[in-house]
Amino acid sequence: MILPLALFSLIPLILPLAVVSAEPVYKPVVLWHGMGDDCCNPQSMGRVTELIQKVLPGVFVHSVQVGETRQDDHEAGFFGQVNDQVEQVCEQLAGIPELADGFNAIGFSQGGLFLRAYVQRCNRPAVHRLITFGSPHGGVADIPNCMNPVDLTCRLMRSAVRFGVYTGYVQHRVVQAQYYKDPRNLQGYLDHNVFLPDINNELGVKNETYRDNLSQLEYFIMVRFADDSMVKPSETAWFWTYDENEDLVPLDKQDMFREDWLGLQRLGARLRFLVSPGQHMEISDDFLETEIIHPYLASPETSAASIPAISTPRFISQP
């Protein structure tokens, strides 16, 4: 069919209008929930998913589920081997076509620690921006309390820990024991903890892949809750930890940072430290939207100018 000449004259006008009106394409987002939660709780991960998709129309969001059902996923937050769960999620995310070109990731509480393990150990597809809320990156000096006091699974977890947090039985069964770092028994922690000493590169032989993978993030944003009483110390969300004298040690005072075991020093200003008001996992929609979604989950072209530069070494030691 031959188009009239008049129509040809309109094509240059039509094409630019089509380009201008097209919605921006946002990187997919992966969520990993915390202890006592599950992938699809409409009050938690469901709410976060809806808010992200409202602010970023058309964005693909995947919420990690360990196991076949929501109940399996809930129980996996307390019982199982974290190393096996991270490996399962590596396979899970690799099989999702929408994530093939990489994604941004948000981890809540222990889910943020596990997403960091994903970045360090497999990272295919790659995480571009990693955001963690109240995550025990530096370990915990006490087993977290149950957020829901009637949660039988959580109560069983705490009962099992009483047998001995660094026994083989507990270490291979109780999730929270696998990031427990006893300041009164640091050698026991290094010798018997089956997850955190490895993922924090605290063992004798350093894993260079861990450092390289983490240092390639576009941004690593760690959020601490101002009034957190669930994880101890609350500053573990920024990698702070207790020494053998039970004194709190900021990240930049640790060998982990000074010798750059994890590539955190290499990240420089791409390493960010935020504070969210309230208790553990009390995250307002306003904080999510203004402090996380708009500056960090928008496409690089639209968000780069909105992310202020900071001086990382000066900021790290601020309580």
Describe the secondary-structure layout:
Blueprint: H1 5-21, E1 29-32, H2 45-55, E2 61-63, H3 70-76, H4 82-94, E3 103-108, H5 110-121, E4 127-133, H6 152-161, H7 168-171, H8 186-192, H9 196-199, H10 208-215, E5 219-225, E6 241-242, E7 248-249, H11 255-258, H12 264-267, E8 271-276, H13 285-297, H14 300-303, H15 312-316
Parallel strand pairs: 1-2, 1-3, 3-4, 4-5, 5-8
Antiparallel strand pairs: 6-7
Report on the architecture of this protein.
With 319 residues, the protein is of the alpha/beta class. It has a domain at 29-140 and 196-297: 3-Layer(aba) Sandwich (Rossmann fold), CATH 3.40.50.1820. Helix content is 39%, strand content 12%. The protein has helices spanning 5-21, 45-55, 70-76, 82-94, 110-121, 152-161, 168-171, 186-192, 196-199, 208-215, 255-258, 264-267, 285-297, 300-303, 312-316, and strands spanning 29-32, 61-63, 103-108, 127-133, 219-225, 241-242, 248-249, 271-276. The strands form two sheets. Strands 2-1-3-4-5-8 form a six-stranded parallel beta sheet, with helices on both faces. A two-stranded antiparallel sheet has the order 6-7. The chain is globular. The termini are far apart. The model is unreliable at 1-21 and 310-319 (pLDDT under 50).
What percent strand? 5-15%
Please state the CA-atom Rg, rounded to the nearest Å: 21 Å
Mean pLDDT: 89
Q: How many helical elements?
A: 15
C-alpha termini separation? 71 Å
The helicity comes to 25-40%
Strand order of the largest sheet: 2-1-3-4-5-8
Query: What would you give as the CATH superfamily of the domain at 29-140 and 196-297?
Result: Alpha/Beta hydrolase fold, catalytic domain
List the secondary-structure elements in sequence, H or E: HEHEHHEHEHHHHHEEEHHEHHH
Count of individual beta strands: 8
Shape: globular
Class computed from helices, strands and strand pairing: alpha/beta
As for the CATH topology of the domain at 29-140 and 196-297, it is Rossmann fold
Largest sheet: 6 strands, parallel
The CATH class of the domain at 29-140 and 196-297 is Alpha Beta
CATH architecture of the domain at 29-140 and 196-297: 3-Layer(aba) Sandwich
Question: Low-confidence spans: pLDDT under 50, at least 5 residues?
Answer: 1-21, 310-319
InterPro entries: AB_hydrolase_fold, Palm_thioest
Enzyme class: hydrolase
Signal peptide: 1-22
Organism: Lichtheimia corymbifera JMRC:FSU:9682
